[in-house]
Amino acid sequence: MALRWTNILKDRDVTDEAVYLNRRQLMGGAVAGVGLAGLGSQAQAQGLEPNAWEDITQYNNYYEFGTGKEDPSRYADQLTTEPWTVTITGMVDRPGDYAFEDIMKAMTVEERIYRFRCVEAWSMVIPWNGFELADLLDMAGVQSGAKYVAFETAYRPEEMPGLKYPVLDWPYVEGLRLDEAVHPLTIMATGIYGKDIPNQNGAPLRLVVPWKYGFKSIKSIVRITLTDIEPPTSWNKSNPREYGFYSNVNPEVSHPRWSQASERPVGGGLFAERQPTLMFNGYEEEVASLYEGLDLKANF
Ligand code: MTE
Questions:
Q1: Is 172 in the pocket of ligand 1 (CB under 6 A)?
Q2: Structural domain span for residue 216
Q3: Which of 4, 109, 172, 296 could pair covalently with 153 via S-S, beta carbons 3.0-4.6 A apart?
């Protein structure tokens, strides 16, 4: 697929958090976009200023640890992430339990600075480290009849206090069409700002699909299943009228209870202006062709 990497930044464009913080201080936030050639210049050109580490790691949704935005950062350190295995199963040539270390040895980790848009209408810009999901699926060898990829989060009642509450039908599950899963923008994130991904963000590996609402980006994955039927997804099961399988970011399709036309950038302060939400979260050029001929209102 011919891709223009307009929304992607690689390692060489980004240094480390210190530089970001330094740049944030230097630029005082308000004058982003001026000068400082070489420091994430591509991101600046697009107005993509990553959120601070504190925003990204202390304002989370991870209901296995509670439904408050600060619950995950309070409680997720209880999750044991070493050792970790991902079972890859279903329509693959090499099904099995893949140790996280072995996956990491085989994968090329890059930095990707992506917009992140939650269905609740807040947004951030996150500098993920990770690898393309397509490469992981190659490791297992996807069979020709496979059409979907199903994902499952760890279910550990003794480590995840939120599992006591029937907020969702645990474990958390998600799914993608195979063409969405192997799209080069779809990654498995293993880090943020060059550090290991914190537990509250989905350690040791979580999905990131930047053109879809954040709930598609399932955390702490233990099982991946290749299948030929559309897999069930947690939020759709819980409320099918409000949450569809696709969940592509779309400013023109309202949530039944609120508009999706604009969003609140997290970290912008209490009186930060809302900003317009972009079609496919700004990745229209890269992904619109996946949905040619599909009624996006009916397939929300
Ligand atoms: N994955 C699991 N297992 N459990 C969850 O509650 N919340 C989803 C998604 N992945 C969630 C999950 C939602 S609603 C969002 S917006 C993002 O994770 C939040 O990711 P972040 O906390 O890293 O910003």
A1: yes
A2: 17-291
A3: 172
